[in-house]
Fold:
Amino acid sequence: MEMLTGKVALVTGATRGIGRAIALKFASEGADVAFTYRSQHEAADSLVKEIEALGRKSRGFSADAADFDSAHEVVAQVHKEFGRIDILVNNAGITKDGLMMRMDEAQWDSVIDTNLKSAFNFTHACTPVMARQRGGSIINMSSVVGLSGNAGQCNYSASKAGLVGLAKSIAKEMGSRGIRANCIAPGFIATDMTGTLPEDVRKEWEKQIPLRRGGRPEDVANVALFLASDMSAYVTGQVINCCGGMNC
Ligand code: NAD
Structure:
């Protein structure tokens, strides 16, 4: 039996990396999947085709996740076209690294807006739908550095810590309506985001990982599947690290 039969998922930032792996994992487990992306139209079209080939319905929406009105328009359209929304994955994210003393206001604002405000935008738009359905699972893509901090990433770490506070608050506020909210804190996952790191830096990171390898997007997608499914029906307000033990 597939784990998400009859469910509708909305994943932000899904044209590549972790979001893409989650969209495909959910579809392979029986969910219809709507997703957002910024500007990669070809990648969005091919993701829709891959999901449809799995026998599921899919549609990609080009929208800036940091924009409050766009998020509400997307959610209204998904609800209209798909009939319900059971799972929201707040995955869209960027890095604009720099030491605190050299960080400018734009670097701070864009990371907070894209990583944290986006999650507020979509959660704000989806929770009325989920409350009417008396159920839903919200998954925020945090990071191990949101729990530990990281030199050179004060903006990113703050945004990822904010996602934890957001999920824990939603868990308390909306548990009585059957809405669960949790975070995944990935460690070092091989995607375009980490692909720009020099080889020696990557090797150094990997040495600190007890499981001795970087993570794959599919490793994170498996945790998302658990949190999206009824297997985690009694799990809310939690952070699950997916980091090969690097933050244990
Ligand atoms: P990625 O750069 O490969 O993918 C990020 C996705 O977000 C892309 O599809 C991009 O188009 C989308 N996106 C960015 N800004 C957007 C916006 N304003 N509106 C809509 N979509 C937008 O990165 P990834 O590694 O797949 O990361 C996915 C999530 O996981 C991010 O939130 C990231 O912070 C988090 N994460 C990644 C790692 C890692 O090691 N890769 C570790 C911890 C957390």
Summary: The longest helix spans residues 105-133. The two ends are 33 Å apart (CA to CA). The beta strands are 8-11, 32-37, 58-62, 87-90, 136-141, 179-186, 239-242. The CA atoms of residues 15 and 42 lie 9 Å apart.
